[in-house]
């Protein structure tokens, strides 16, 4: 092998090795851009009514149109393993993410949210809200 080709080869090999080692190193956790979580659980007045459940799910999905709602998940009870610590008494849940407290406050009084409450509150018997912020 010629001297220049050998130098190029060794230089390229060293660069690849360094790049591989750097990519294998642990990266610092990314800061969550939506640190405020709003999780709501609904108990339906008619828990066996698929129609009522579907109407509530559809109403919840309209809340994604509120600009301060950065992410929205709507779910129903999953058929996971039955354990003492798992509560399956609720019917529908909503999980929202906000950039900050001001965004969550805006959501609370937004006309779409107020319309949702007006249209869907007759469907539920009980609501529990859990709000949390990243630490």
Automatic annotation (TrEMBL):
SMART domains in alphabetical order: Dabb
Pfam families: Dabb (PF07876)
Name this protein carries in UniProt: Dabb family protein
Keywords: Signal
InterPro entries: Dabb, Dimeric_a/b-barrel, TAT_signal, TAT_signal_bac_arc
Keyword presence, Signal: yes
Residues in Stress-response A/B barrel domain copies: 36-132
Domain of life of the organism encoding this protein: Bacteria
Signal sequence interval, chain numbering: 1-24
């Amino acid at each position: 092998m010629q001297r220049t080709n050998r130098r190029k080869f060794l230089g390229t090999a060293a660069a690849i090795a360094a790049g591989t080692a750097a990519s294998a190193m642990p990266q610092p956790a990314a800061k969550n851009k939506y640190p405020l979580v709003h999780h709501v659980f609904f108990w339906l007045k008619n828990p066996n009514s698929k129609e009522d459940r579907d109407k509530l799910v559809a109403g919840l999905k309209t809340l994604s149109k509120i600009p301060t709602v950065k992410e929205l998940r709507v779910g129903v009870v999953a058929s996971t393993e039955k354990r003492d610590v798992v509560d399956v008494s609720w019917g529908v849940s909503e999980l929202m993410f906000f950039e900050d407290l001001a965004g969550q406050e805006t959501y609370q009084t937004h006309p779409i949210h107020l319309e949702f409450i007006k249209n869907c509150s007759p469907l539920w018997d009980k609501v529990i809200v859990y709000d949390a912020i990243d630490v």
